[in-house]
Structures are given as structure tokens and as C-alpha cells.
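$ run holo --ligand "iron/sulfur cluster" --emit C-alpha cells
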Amino acid sequence: MRERYTRVVKVGNVEIGGSNPIRVQSMTKTPTIDIKATIRQIKGLAKKGCEIIRVGVPDKDSALALGKIKKESPIPIVADIHFDYRLALIALEQGVDKLRLNPGNIKNPKHISLIAREAKARGVPIRVGSNAGSLPQEILKKYGGVTPEALVESAINEVKLLEDNDFTDIVVSVKASSVPLTVEAYRLLSSKVNYPLHVGITEAGTLLPGAIRSSVGIGILLYEGIGDTIRVSLASSPDKEVEVAYEILDSLEIRRKGLRVIACPMCARAHFPVGEIAKKIENKFKDYSLNLTIAVMGCEVNGPGEAKWADLGIAGSQNRVIIFKYGKIIKETDWKHVLFELEKELNMWKEVNTN
Ligand code: SF4
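-- output --
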């Protein structure tokens, strides 16, 4: 995997870029004015590992709700502002940790300067960027449509508007819902700026297709060393966005979060519903922070051998389950007691790790 170092931007107490871990972000899906529901959602996401949360700010009441949300939030808050510079100023007053806005949308240079000055005074970074769905007409004309070059030029124009105001605490994104377009755009962008990059496939879709599109797009980029923070955008619960983000990081072996459960695909030799049992194990041990791999294998004949690299594994027949460690059988039990026995094993591991 290629390493690429960007400059470091601080969002509250979380650093993005440089040699920091790839940060996982999500966005709340509650109305921001419903402060209680928004805080509840943020706390749930933080528990899942979300490190930075973006909150939509469609109006003044939403902007005024940010202070209370910020006070209760265990993770930094990003205010997502579209056109109204006054909302950005209120958000800053309310103590948000980062702004997402495009100065190009603010139009009046005085208002852009004001935002840059206020953000700088507070040490608040700004994410700017382009989105395939909202490129300026002149750029669309110049490139004959949405192209990687068009996305990058538009994003760089936004960057320049801030740089002209002596503001460089910037994160950049160039998003599209097409995976090849997004990948090409980020490759080009990363060759032109060394600001940290926020990477994602926008409007990726519902859970399964969205997770796959995001994984392919974000996966290619991260593997090439491009991207400092990721957001998986799904038409699904934000919890899923965070889960998918960690699966992507885990698949690339960039960041692990707790146990990894792997399972064989099953074949005619399988003696039990492998997927169902794997799901049960995932749910039961989801809060374990041990970096271990548990393999769920459908048969005793091939299972332990095929998964001998896994830290722990189970394989079984209808009545009997074997538990194995690095391919060697360490215990025999039945289906009723398998979770209990696995728990005992994991607790032993925990003890060794904490002593
Ligand atoms: S572990 Fe057994 S059941 Fe699973 S795919 Fe391999 S041979 Fe088939």
C-alpha cells in the first residue's frame, strides 16, 4: 500500500491527515432541531466508532441548536452549510469543530472573508469540494460535462477562495456517485494538493449496492494511499455507514476494530447454517476490542485446515462442534454451549492481553 502524507488538520480533538489513522465519519439523519434525537444518534454512532459527525444546517433554528448538540457530543461536530454565510457564522459561534461549505456558493467576497477570519480565529477547519451534481455551469461548459478534471478544477477553485483569505486549514473532497469518475478525480486531486482528503462515493445507494460501491471506490483509493478520512454515504441508518467504513478499513488491513468473524461459503459438506451462526457470533462479541479472527467453518474435515491461520475457529457436525486454535482442536462441545465456550476462550485472551 502506498503511503502519502498530507498536512494535518485538527477537528476538535481529532487529527486528520499526516500519519494519523484514516478517520471514520458519518452524518446524522435526524432533524437537527430535534436536539435530543440528534444527540442520541451521535452518541450511538460514537459508540460504534464514528470519530467525526456532520450535522445538516438547513436553517437558523438548526444552526442555533448546534451549541447544545456540541455540548453533549462525545465526538467533534461538523456543520454542513450550503449557501447562507450567516448560518456559518452562527455555527462558529455555537462552537462547532469544522465547517463543510463551499465559499463559491457564498458569492459575496466580503462574506467569504468574514467566515475565513472567524473560522481561523477559532482554529476551525473547513472542508470544501465539488460534487458531480452541482458543478458550476462555466466548468461544465469548459469540460463538456462532469469529468474528473472538471471536478478537480471546481474543488481547487474553492480551495483558492479560502487561500486568498489566508486560510489553509482545509480538507478537500471531489465526490460523484460513479465509482470510476470518483477514483479518477481523487487521483488527479491528490497529485495537485496536499491538503487532507475526505473520500467517499456520494449517493451510493441502499445498503448492499451502496456498501459495495463505496467499498470499491474508497477501497481503491485507500489502497493507493489516497484519503485521510472516509464517509460511506448510504440510504440506510448511519450505524450501517460506520459499520461498512470499518469493514473497508479492516479488509484493507488498515484499521481493525474488534473481532473479525470470517465464515466459509458453505458447500454440500456443511453440517449447519454457517451464516446464521457467524452472525450470532458477530452480535454476541461485537463489543470485544480484541484484534482476533474467529473462523466459522461448515465441516470438520476441511474447516480447521482451511482456517488454520485464524486465531480461533469452530467447525461442526449436526451434534458436535469443535473449537480450534490455529487449526488445532482445543475443545469439543455442542451447539447449545458453543457461544459460552467461545466466550470463555475470548475472556482468557482478554486476561492475557490486559495483564
Ligand atoms: S469448510 Fe467445509 S463446508 Fe465450508 S466450504 Fe470448506 S469444505 Fe465446504
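-- notes --
Residues 260-354 form a domain with the Sulfite Reductase Hemoprotein; domain 1 fold (CATH 3.30.413.10).
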